[in-house]
From TrEMBL:
<comment type="similarity">
    <text>Belongs to the glycosyltransferase 15 family.</text>
</comment>
<keyword id="KW-0472">Membrane</keyword>
<dbReference type="InterPro" id="IPR002685">
    <property type="entry name" value="Glyco_trans_15"/>
</dbReference>
<feature type="transmembrane region" description="Helical">
    <location>
        <begin position="12"/>
        <end position="31"/>
    </location>
</feature>
<dbReference type="GO" id="GO:0005794">
    <property type="term" value="C:Golgi apparatus"/>
</dbReference>
<keyword id="KW-1133">Transmembrane helix</keyword>
<dbReference type="GO" id="GO:0000032">
    <property type="term" value="P:cell wall mannoprotein biosynthetic process"/>
</dbReference>
<dbReference type="InterPro" id="IPR029044">
    <property type="entry name" value="Nucleotide-diphossugar_trans"/>
</dbReference>
<dbReference type="GO" id="GO:0000026">
    <property type="term" value="F:alpha-1,2-mannosyltransferase activity"/>
</dbReference>
<keyword id="KW-0808">Transferase</keyword>
<protein>
    <recommendedName>
        <fullName>Glycosyltransferase family 15 protein</fullName>
    </recommendedName>
</protein>
<dbReference type="GO" id="GO:0016020">
    <property type="term" value="C:membrane"/>
</dbReference>
<dbReference type="GO" id="GO:0006487">
    <property type="term" value="P:protein N-linked glycosylation"/>
</dbReference>
<keyword id="KW-0812">Transmembrane</keyword>
<dbReference type="Pfam" id="PF01793">
    <property type="entry name" value="Glyco_transf_15"/>
</dbReference>
Amino acid sequence: MLESVVRRPQRLLFALIAFMVVLFFTTYLSLSSWGSEQVRTHFETLKAAFNKNATQAAVHAQNEIASTISIGGQPSQAFMDGIKTIDDLRKYAVKGEDGNLYPPTFVPSEVNKLPRAKAGFIVLVRNNELEDMRKSMRDVEDRFNRKYGYPWIFLNNEPFTEEFKQGVKKMTRSEVRFGFIGPEMWGYPDWIDQTRAAESRKKMAEEGVIYGWSESYRHMCRFQSGFFWRHNLTMDLDYYWRVEPGIQLFCDLDYDPFVFMELNDKKYGFTISLHEYVKTIPTLWDRTKEFMKMHPDYLAKDHALHFMTDEPERLLEPGYNMCHFWSNFEIADLRFWRGQKYTEYFDYLDKAGGFFYERWGDAPVHSIAAVLFLNRSQIHHFNDIGYFHGPWTHCPLNRPKFHDNGKCLCNPEDSADYNDFMCMKEWWRTSIEGDPNQRS
Ligand SMILES: Nc1nc2c(ncn2[C@@H]2O[C@H](COP(=O)(O)OP(=O)(O)OP(=O)(O)O)[C@@H](O)[C@H]2O)c(=O)[nH]1
Ligand SMILES: [Mg+2]
């Protein structure tokens, strides 16, 4: 080797020049991410030009441009600044398989650089609900999440099928997680008398109580009350939006509701409130009273009890009017459930056995906790989120604000807000904001 260099010293010169070129090139790439992106982009475009399968490569190049536009802060800005006219854009256009030029695509959630909350969508769902799940996702993505890219977390007490996983993954560009719920979160605690539980189901079936007869429904309500907020797939989140299969959203959400929660120190958000069936929770209020006797200091200073009784000054004494927030939709703070007050409250209820001996739903359980432990100002009615979960619809009533401008697509006359089965009147008399429809 050394001998050959000595025989021809010009080889040394070549090697030195080659070394300098490599050094210059790598320094440029490492110092300028914009530079590397450009090189990558042009490389891909070049590849596309030479590649026999030009369309596929062009699409790939287009994806590269998409990430060039959207990823990386400053370079994206520089890139955007460099494109002022459609002719500027022309050099990044790609040829589709139909032979036409297509402008580069971009990912809206990546272009939106606003800070995000630690949040995601939490969905408890069964494999056979795939189609309804995809419909719900389509609405959530269209109305909000496409621009924000919050993750989806799917939980199930059975393993998700490959069909389900692929089916929901296709509906979003966000991260998607699939979690299994083990028997410690979905099953009978050892203090529960299962014979008594079965008798209660039989009785409710005879009395025609809706869903009262189903064993899995009771596990579901217990899971939604006591466990989703401490499942290992949700532990990195502060806020969540609960989504169910088969729901619909009617209005564009042009702001980030999780950031809204954080900005205003809100802990619980809902769209619909209504009355619970008395037969499903005959002793829930009594158990709650016992718990509050043991912990009178847990009552919030500016609690929202007026939502649940006509005489809030007598605290829990007047009894429960059955009003609750409909928990199939929730935007809330997971740290509220993880906190000492709610954790102890849930444990107390769980020991009392009412999830199995009656049919305590997660909706009244969540609602009672929110009303007692939170200040009124920490509970929020998302009047601007038009929502359907069979059989009820909430559609904002204010036409100039929500309809004439094209924001919502629903009929205010379908809105259940003033229906007698609803509890919006009770909420508006309680809340600081009052009835939004009475505001000018
Ligand atoms: N994994 C799993 N999810 C369930 C089970 N039962 C209910 N769910 C989910 O729990 C949520 C509530 O159940 P639903 O059956 O919708 O109950 P509901 O909202 O009271 O009644 P519907 O009028 O049927 O919507 C939904 O997201 C369901 O997909 C179950 O046994 N396993
Ligand atoms: Mg449902």
